[in-house]
Write a structure and sequence with these properties.
alpha+beta
Length: 138
């Protein structure tokens, strides 16, 4: 079966779109063509080191990482819309939640929100969803 990096990422992105599929969003290696005047999202999957969970050719590997959802809003327009969107996502990504794409399961470990900051004329806060996934070697 192998590592299934694509299915892990698809489980994460599909889960985010199940929470909100109407707000404009950019995806890993696929930027928005035009930056919106209002709220917009940016999804990033940041993988960590993969480690063996069991030994042998048919063993299993653990894949740790975090899924970052950047919530962007025009600068100097307040933080209410950003925090409401963060609440919407954080209520979905609870510890222990299973995200599945095809047969690949991804488990949410935790979810936290960064302080707000200004990036490129936007106020941004990042929701970090820590996860792990287990795959079978073969």
């Amino acid at each position: 079966m192998g590592a299934n990096f694509i299915e892990i990422e698809k489980a994460l992105i599909q889960s985010a779109l199940s929470v909100d599929n109407t707000t404009p969003a950019s995806f890993p290696n696929k930027e928005l063509k035009d930056t919106p005047d209002g709220l917009w999202l940016q999804f990033n999957n940041v993988r960590s080191e993969s480690n063996p969970a069991t030994l042998g050719d048919a063993g299993e590997d653990n894949h740790l990482g975090f899924f970052q959802i950047d919530i962007n809003y025009p600068a100097n327009k307040g933080s209410k819309a950003v925090l409401e969107k963060a609440d919407q996502f954080s209520s979905y990504y609870t510890a222990g939640k299973s995200l599945v794409y095809n047969a690949q399961e991804v488990k949410v470990l935790s979810c936290s929100l960064s302080p707000g900051r200004y990036v490129g004329g936007y106020y941004r806060t990042s929701l970090t969803v820590n996860y792990y996934a287990r795959t079978t070697r073969s």
